[in-house]
Structures are given as C-alpha cells and as structure tokens.
TrEMBL record:
Keyword rRNA-binding on entry: no
Reaction catalyzed: ATP + H2O = ADP + phosphate + H(+)
Matches recorded under InterPro entries: ATP-dep_Helicase_C, DinG/Rad3-like, DNA/RNA_helicase_DEAH_CS, HBB, Helic_SF1/SF2_ATP-bd_DinG/Rad3, Helicase-like_DEXD_c2, MAD2L1BP_domain_sf, P-loop_NTPase
Name of the protein: DNA 5'-3' helicase
Domain of life according to the entry: Eukaryota
Domain Helicase ATP-binding: 310-588
Location in the cell: Nucleus
One Pfam family recorded for the sequence: DEAD_2
Enzyme Commission (EC) number: 5.6.2.3
Names of required cofactors: [4Fe-4S] cluster
Recorded family membership: Belongs to the helicase family. RAD3/XPD subfamily.
Keywords associated with the record: 4Fe-4S, ATP-binding, DNA damage, DNA repair, DNA-binding, Helicase, Hydrolase, Iron, Iron-sulfur, Isomerase, Metal-binding, Nucleotide-binding, Nucleus
Species, as recorded: Brassica napus (Rape)
Length: 1061
C-alpha cells in the first residue's frame, strides 16, 4: 500500500480501533503499547523462543545449566563417554547463551531508543513495525496511529506501567488476536524494523536515522491500529498539532534479528513446541495457535529432489519418512493407471505434504496435461493448514525451477469466511451473511441503485464488476486470509473473485460439500476438467457425509415456517401482478423452455443448484400445473397440508419413496414429475419476485428440497416418520425424514466424472469395506504403518476392573454399579500415574452424563479432582471451546487435566491432544450407533440387501473406526508418545479388535489384550519410564525412520523399493 501523507485521518479504516483516556495514552502508554506489540509480533511469528517477559527466565535457566555442566565436568570420576556428551552440551549452551544475550541486549537498546524518542518527540503519531527482509519487502507490518491528548505534550514522567496502561495493553492484544493477527506463520527467520514519523528536528543519530520517501509495495496491506485519546467529556481531541506535512520518517538503527534457528538447534527445541505460560495479556489463543501445526515442523526445511520412475519429485524437507515415500509410489501408480485409490496412513506421518509433493511434481512432469488438484478437507482449519504446506512446497519448487513451477492455488469457502464488507460480516451466521450479500449484489438491486442512490450496494462487488475480465489473481498460493487481504487491497470482493478463479486455478482447496452436495457442486464445481485429481482427506466418514448431503428432515416448525413463507410469496405475487405483471408472464414463457436458462444467471443471482440431477431436469419443460406462480404456490400449500397430516401420527411409519409419492398423488393430487421440479421452480419464482432475504425462506426451501429428492430417487431412500424421539417418548416431537441409505449416490458423479479420486485418512480399516460402501473399484488400495525408532504408542485392552469383574458398555451391563465403579477406579488410578493431560471418551452424551453423576455421588469425581482439573465437552460449541482452552492452560501449567468427551462429537473429530495435552486416552466402551434408531435399521437393511454387508459387520466397522478416531487424537507426530486404553471386554474379541487400523494393531501386544486395572497401571508406569529415556530420533540400522536424499539414491541404484521399518 502506498504511504500517502494524511493517511491516518479519521476516514481511514482500521483493523483495530481503540478509544482510550488521556491517563492511559500518555508517553508511558505509547511506549508500552509499542513494546507489547513488538513482543506480540516477535513471539507470534516465532521469531523469539518465548514471550519477552519470560526470556530472562530462560536465560537464567541456560546459565544455571551451564554452571551445572561445569561442576559436573570437574568431577573426577566422569566416564570419557559422558564427559564428551557433557562437553558437547556445554558448547551448545554457551552458544545459546551468547545468542540470547545478544537478542536481549538489542531489545533493551531498542526500548531505550523508544523512550528517548518519546521524551524528544512526545506527540509521535505513527509507528510502523515491519517483519521481513527489509522495510521495503515486508512479510508483516503493523501500523500504529496515535491521536494524543494535549497532556502528552508535556510528558516528563517515567515509563512505569500503571493500571490504565496495563489495561490498554491487554485490550490491544486481545483485539489483535480477535482480528486473527499472528495466526499465520512466517516463512522462517526474519528481521524486525521499526519506523516512526517524527518532526525533522528529531536529533537522536545513535538510534534513529531519517528515511525519506518510505513506502512499501502497493500490493501490501499492513494491519492498522488506531489509539484515539478522548477527553473526559468524551470528545476526541484534535490530532496533535504537528503538521503532518512537516513530519518525516525515521528508521530505528536497532534491528531485532531472529535467533530462533540457532536456539532451536540445541536441545532446547521444546522452547517453541511447548509454549511457556503466556503473560495474561497474550490470552489463551496464543498457546493454541502455537501448538497446532504440521508434524514435520521440527525438521529443518531444505531441498530434496528424487525420482519416482519418470517423475522428479520436489519435496521441501531434507528428510522423508519411509512411509511417505511408499505412499507417493502408490499414489503415482494410481495416477498412472488413471484410476481411483484408497490410502490409509497414520496421522503424524506427513500425509498432506506427501500428497501435495507428488501430485504437483506429477503435474510438472507432464506440462501438456491439464491436471488440476482439487483437495477436499472437512474444516476451514484443515484447509488453511493444507494451503500453508502448499506455500512451503511452492516456494521450494519456484526456487528450484523458476517461473515454470508457478501455480495458482486458492482456498474457497463461504461468504462468511471470505467477505470483507464489515456491515455484511456483522450478520450472525452463514445464511444471514449470504442473504445480506445478496441484498447488495442481486442484479435487480443493482438496477434499482442506478435510479435510487439510497439503495446500498457493496463497493467491493462494484469494483470487482467494474474490473470485469481484468479481475484476476496473479499466480501464487492464497489462503483465505491472503484472499481477504488481496481483496481489501484491490477493493475487489474476495468471494466472487475466488469463485471466478476456480476455473483457472491449478490447485483448489475446499470443503467436501463443494463436490458431494449436488446443491453446491452444481454451481461451484461444474467447470472442473475430467483430468482433475480429487483428494478427500480425512475421509474415514465420507460415507456419512454423502448420506447427509442427500437427506432431509421436516419437523412441525419447518412446516409452520414454510406456511409463513408461502404467505409472503403470495403477497409478493399480488404486488407484482399489480405493478409488474410482465415479469410473471416472462417467467411463465421461460418455464416452457425449461429451467436451463438458469445456467446463464450472473454469479450473484445463482442459488444453490438442484439437489438431485440438475442436467436431467433442467432440459425438460416445467410441468404446466406449476408454471403459473399462483398455481405453484397452491401446489406447495397442498404439499404442506399433506406433510402436516403425515406428521400427525402416533406410530412410527416407514415407507419407500415410491409408495410415498403414490399416496401423495392420490391424496393431494401432486404428481411425481411436479415434485421433481419443486426446488428449481421455487428458486425461479423467488428470483422473479426479487426476494433477497433467502435466510428467511429456508423452511420452504427445505420442503422443496425434500420434494425434489423424493420425486427423483426411487431407491436408496426411505421415508421415516417418528412421532417422538425414542429416548424421550413422553415428549411429542414428530419428524419426517427422507433418509438416504446409499452413500454411493452422492459420490457417483465424482467417480464418474474425474479420472482419479484419492480417498485417504489415518483410519480406513477395514480398507476393503469402503469400495463396497461407495461402490467403486480402486486401482490401488493400501494401508501403511508408521515407522518408529521406539514404541511410542501403547495400546491396551482393559477387560476387568481391579475386583476382576468384567467392564463393558453393553446394553445389559452399562448401568451396572460394578462397571461404573470400576471405570471410575481406573481413572482415579491412572490420573495419579500419568502426568499432564488425560482424555476420556464415552459412547454418548447421555452415558457420560449418567456415569459422571454416579461418580460424583460416590466421591470418585472428587478423588479425580484431587489429582487433576476436570473439563467436559458439551453440545454447545462455545462452552466446549472454552473448556478446551482451559484444559490446555491447565496442561501448560504442569498440573495436567482430564477432558471428558464423546465419540462422534466435535472433539473426537477435529481436536488434537498431542504432546503434553494428551498422554493417555481412555475409550470407555465400544461406540456403537444407537441400534434402535429407525434410520439406522433402514440403512442396515439396505446395505444387507444391496451390498451384502451384514448388519453386525457394518456396526462393528463403524464403531471401531470411531474408537480409532478417538484414540488417534493422542499421537500426532513421531516425536510424541501416548497410551490408549480400550476399556471394554468386547475389544478382546478378535472380530472387534481386528477392525482397528494396522498402525494401532501392530503395537497391541498379546500381553496387553486382557488386562485388569492393576495390570494396566503397571504397564502405564513402565511405558512412561521408558519414554522418559533419551532416544535416537533418526533411527539406526534396520529401523531407519528418516531417509535422506542419499538413501533414496542408494535404493534406486540397488533397485530396492521396499524399506525395512
Ligand atoms: S460482494 Fe463480497 S464483499 Fe461484498 S458483501 Fe458480498 S461477499 Fe461481502
């Protein structure tokens, strides 16, 4: 962004805008804000090993270690081998002390310089902190604007931090964290520069040198913070009376050079990986953002190039795990064969980077082929992580190959995550953001705005439209944050820009729904070429995602909402009839041609596509009985009445779509073909009526979604009507569910359309079941183990309590007081043995509530809390996030904590409990689905009849993949270690146990298969003792776990492809 004089005026937009009082924004306040933001920037972008406040502690620790080493070396009886080790460590520590000393001196000089500056020019208005290679090439920049009170003119006080200043600092850091500042990583060591705008008379040549004409790259967007001082009567004072034209830039002579690399080189690598408790101002988000990251982070990034047959693979690290290499070999086989594949590899083994490296290198080796990578993730966090890895890889490939390696890669998400219009973003949920955006961008709204200037539009969309074909993203890798920054900088809407660029991108990262939900896929993914390689990462639940994409539930409240929607639509029709009947006539004529015209709609007018098979439907003419708007409303009214009648039942009913449609036809006179068109017909009508607040019309959309699906599919679905939830039969809560049983229906278009689809996860066992469930033939289907130099996973099957009574959550045993007591005693014993975090998973919320209530009554919970703090997952996301946050804090403090959670819950799916956050995970029971659920029973019946999958097999497979998913949370990298207890006697049976992934089974010894609580405690003690010993991280002899380029070359020479590990 160009730095123009006069910026910082009140019209300018700030990412953080803080109004404060004169008492907190004196000279001392300004100094402390700069100082704290400096610390924040250095720490959050990993340029210093610990927060500024704790550096002296670390420094003291190093000095103490140095003294101890010296004392040990003077001992007469030190063995030569030990002496060598001590000497080597002493050298390292000495080196680290020097580095840290230098860093602390620089920061201290910098602080003194800032204090001198504030004394000399107390009204300093603008300060810029820049992280990067030089001030002109910033990676991150934080611009601080101060609007002072007149008091600061007379600043003669000291720089001690008073309460008001401290509060202001905390508020600032909190605001920074909530804007997402510091949540991205910097690509390596950087330098930190400080520039200030001050009068030319400033004379501190030892500390500040004038730097005229400072401005950074036009494309760069700094993060802006404003501190506005208010007088007591709340009036903002005019800016400090320097004339901004008289101010010039000064650059501070003291640079903070990154010392992270050298400090990490020593054994103190835990400094970054195990964050020091943060000062209160840094808030809880700090440790979370720091602990998340790729498992290969500890490895220094360096070049690695090797061949897999005819493909030269570029891998951005200096070592590769053997399983990563094998994974690439198998993946390449699938790409060569132009077929689909299933690959299971444990988490923490660098699956993502292996996938990205191989596919991008494969693309580079075939420059004429239009190969595109479409990478599907489950969450936005995973999307950002993948793009972060891709950035590293892309930088490396470009450094090595130059411009030919340049690609365009972007993440695509909903408006909620990409919108930059603050007024729209203020809407509370995704649907409201969508609706608020439509209100400003729909074609008819824009047409109206041309006549009426009071109609509000979105400036970002208008600039994007104005740029027309020139609105393009230059090559590069764009995370969602990058897209937002780019959009803000150019003034273009990042959401529409990203959607437009999908057709040009080489790599697209988005969520499963963009391919699996036909409503979304029909809009976003329709342009993708056949040659695209589709990857579904963490795909162990892909069958459920497919099923959910095609299932609809209708409740009483849906029908009430839909009735209100129809009333509104009816009013709108009447209004249009009176004012613009031509529009309705034009729509009628268009419907005779079919709905295909919808494809020509502008991006802003597009709605979700048809939930079934759009192309089949769009080409046909819309049935005559729903072409006229009022007739269509009438048909929908009849449909609602019919559904209301069906909900009015006291018995559970189940029927097929065919019989449902025929009874609908006979009772309400609505034909199957009419039903099929409902969804598109509704959207056509809503557009004709220029309805933009789509979020209010969700109920009628749900009903039409249901109608179209039920009218389209004759098999693979059931309609189930239940008058109440079976677990609460006394509360009437009727629900009509159109339930899809066949996961292959949603994914079939993906398999048919694209030449290679990769389904991968850490948990795909038994791997032969997925091809049957999803109805496809993989050309490659492999499960990989994790190579390890030590047995860092310790799975155990606990079948009995300390009183030798069996434990299980089997229906007839789960409430047995003996089982509940034995589970409690197991936990009490374990928390006294295991340091740090312990995570417990239960089979359901109701079971967890029941067992914890009993533990509370019997005093077991009290015994647990005497050892560790206890936190719970609830169905409320905000509560759970808070609990997780505090759980981590407790673990960071060293006291450790217990987290109670539920299989199939949010925590089990997406939260990592790596390192000290999880040393033990206990799975209480086998997490079978609720087997009396009518939907589940219908699905089981369908699977048996259609795919010959037995009920028991499917239920066991499903329960065991959930259990594996839960216990897998505890180990997220090879440097990590953790124990897993499967606490249920049923796990000792071969038919259950054998369905666990191979990487868990390979560590499950026979001696650990039938344990009582006492035996498990003994094994836990032994395991933890073993893990506390130093070990060889690289592996030796036959157990080599890190391969270098030379190893791979040697293997190629000798023709050996399979590694021993
Ligand atoms: S056009 Fe883009 S920036 Fe404007 S409101 Fe819609 S999503 Fe937000």
């Amino acid at each position: 962004m160009e730095m123009e004089e006069g910026e910082g005026s009140t019209e300018e937009k700030y990412d953080v805008d803080i109004a404060t009082t004169a008492s907190s924004l004196g000279g001392s306040g300004v100094f402390h804000i700069i100082n704290d933001i400096l610390g924040f920037v250095l720490y959050m972008y990993q340029q210093i090993p610990s927060v500024l406040q704790d550096m002296s502690l670390d420094f003291d620790g190093l000095q103490t270690e140095f003294t101890d080493l010296e004392a040990n070396l003077t001992q007469p009886d030190v063995k030569p081998l030990v002496r060598r080790k001590l000497l080597s460590r002493k050298r390292e520590v000495k080196h680290e002390i020097k580095k840290m000393q230098k860093l602390m001196t620089t920061i201290s000089t910098l602080r003194s310089a800032l204090q001198l500056l504030i004394r000399e020019a107390p009204g300093v208005q603008r300060v810029v902190l820049i992280l990067g290679g030089s001030p002109l090439r910033p990676q991150k920049a934080y611009e601080l604007f101060f609007t002072h009170s007149v008091d600061v003119l007379r600043f003669e006080g000291d720089f001690s931090k008073n309460k008001a200043t401290e509060a202001l600092s905390k508020k600032t850091i909190r605001a920074l964290i909530s804007t997402g500042a510091g949540s991205t990583s910097c690509p390596g060591p950087m330098r930190l520069f400080i520039l200030v705008q001050a009068p030319p008379s400033l004379n501190l040549p030892q500390h500040f040198l004038p730097k005229r004409d400072f401005r950074y790259n036009r494309k760069f967007v700094p993060l802006k913070l404003r501190f506005k001082c208010k007088t007591q009567d709340n009036e903002t004072n005019p800016p400090f009376n320097y004339d901004t034209n008289d101010l010039i830039w000064f650059q501070c002579r003291h640079l903070v050079n990154n010392t992270q690399a050298s400090i990490l080189a020593g054994n103190r690598s835990t400094l970054l990986s195990a964050p020091t408790p943060i000062s209160p101002g840094f808030l809880s988000a700090v440790p979370i953002s720091i602990c998340l990251g790729h498992s290969t982070r500890g490895r220094r990034r360096k070049k690695m190039i090797f061949k897999i047959e005819d493909v030269t693979v570029y891998f951005p690290y200096d070592n590769i795990y053997p399983e990563q290499y094998e994974y690439m070999v198998e993946l390449k086989r699938a790409l060569d064969a132009k077929g689909h594949c299933l690959l299971e590899m444990p988490t923490g083994t660098g699956k993502t980077i292996a996938l990205l490296s191989l596919i991008t290198s494969y693309r580079l080796s075939r420059p004429d082929s239009p190969i595109k990578l479409v990478y599907c993730t489950r969450t936005v966090h995973e999307m950002e992580k993948t793009l972060g890895e891709l950035k590293i890889l892309h930088d490396y490939q470009v450094t090595h190959l130059g411009a030919q390696a340049k690609i365009l890669a972007l993440g695509l998400s909903s408006r909620k995550n990409l919108c930059v219009n603050p007024k729209v973003l203020a809407a509370e949920n995704r649907d409201s953001v969508d609706a608020a955006c439509r209100k400003r961008t729909a074609s008819w709204v824009r047409a109206l705005a041309a006549e009426n200037p009071n109609v509000e539009l979105c400036d970002y969309f208008e600039s994007y439209e104005k740029a027309a074909d020139n609105a393009l993203l230059p090559p590069g890798v764009y995370t969602l944050e990058d897209l937002r920054a780019f959009g803000k900088n150019r003034g273009w809407c990042p959401y529409f820009l990203a959607r437009h660029m999908v057709q040009f991108a080489n790599v697209i990262v988005y969520s499963y729904q963009y391919l699996l939900d036909p409503k979304v896929a029909g809009i976003i993914s329709k342009e993708l070429q056949k040659e695209s390689v589709i990857v579904f990462d963490e795909a162990h639940n892909i069958d459920n995602v497919c099923i959910e994409a095609l299932s609809v539930s209708v409740r009483r409240v849906t029908l009430e909402g839909a009735n209100r929607n129809l009333n509104k639509i009816r009013q709108e029709i009447d209004r249009f009839k009176a004012t613009d009947a031509g529009r309705l006539r034009a729509e009628y004529n268009r419907l005779i041609e079919g709905l295909a015209l919808r494809g020509d709609l502008s991006g802003t007018d597009q709605w979700l596509a048809n939930p079934a098979l759009p192309n089949d439907i769009l080409k046909e003419a819309v049935p005559g009985n729903i072409r006229r708007a009022e007739h269509f409303v009438h048909v929908l009214r009849r449909l609602l009445q019919y559904l209301e009648g069906r909900l009015d039942t006291e018995n559970v009913e189940k029927e097929s779509p065919v019989s449902f449609v025929s009874s609908l036809n006979s009772q309400a006179g609505i034909e199957q073909k009419t039903l099929k068109f409902c969804y598109d017909r509704l959207h056509s009508l809503m557009m004709t009526l220029e309805i933009t607040d789509t979020d209010e019309f969700l109920p009628i959309q749900t009903v039409c979604d249901f109608a179209t699906l039920v009218g389209t599919y004759a098999r693979g679905f059931s309609i189930i009507i239940e008058p109440y939830d079976e677990r609460m039969p006394h509360i009437p809560d009727p629900i009509l569910q159109l339930s899809c049983h066949d996961a292959s229906l949603a994914i079939k278009p993906v398999f048919d359309r694209f030449q290679s689809v990769v389904i991968t996860s850490g948990t795909l066992s038994p791997i032969d079941l997925y091809p049957r469930l999803l109805s496809f033939n993989p050309v490659v289907s492999r499960s990989f183990k994790m190579s390890m130099t030590r047995d860092c996973i310790c799975p155990m099957v606990l079948t009995r309590g300390s009183d030798q009574l069996p434990v299980s959550t089997k229906f007839d045993m789960r409430s047995d007081p003996g089982v509940v007591r034995n589970y409690g005693k197991l936990l009490v014993e374990m928390v006294s043995v295991v340091p740090d975090g312990v995570v417990c998973f239960f089979v359901s919320y109701s079971y967890m509530d029941g067992i914890i209530a009993t533990w509370n009554e019997t005093g077991i919970l009290k015994e647990i809390t005497q050892q560790k703090l206890v936190f719970f997952e609830t169905q409320d996301v905000v509560e759970t996030t808070l609990a997780l946050d505090n759980y981590r804090r407790a673990c960071d403090c060293g006291r450790g904590a217990v987290f109670f959670s539920v299989a199939r819950g949010k925590v089990a799916e997406g939260i990592d409990f790596d390192r000290h956050y999880g040393r033990l995970v206990v799975m209480f029971g086998v997490p079978f689905q609720y087997t009396l659920s009518k939907i589940l029973l219908a699905r089981l019946e369908y699977l048996r009849d259609t795919f010959q999958i037995k009920e028991g097999d499917f239920l066991t497979f499903d329960a065991l993949r959930q259990a594996a998913q839960c216990v897998g949370r505890v180990i997220r990298s090879k440097a990590d270690y953790g124990m897993m207890i499967f606490a249920d006697k049923r796990y000792s049976r071969h038919d259950k146990r054998s369905k666990l992934p191979g990487w868990i089974l390979s560590h499950l010894r026979d001696a650990h298969l039938n344990l009582s609580t006492d035996m498990a405690i003994h094994i836990a003690r032994e395991f933890l003792r073993k893990m506390a010993q130093p070990y060889d991280k690289t592996g030796t002899m036959g157990r080599k776990t890190l391969l270098t380029q030379e190893d791979l070359e040697k293997m190629a020479e000798t023709g050996v492809q399979d590694m021993v590990y």
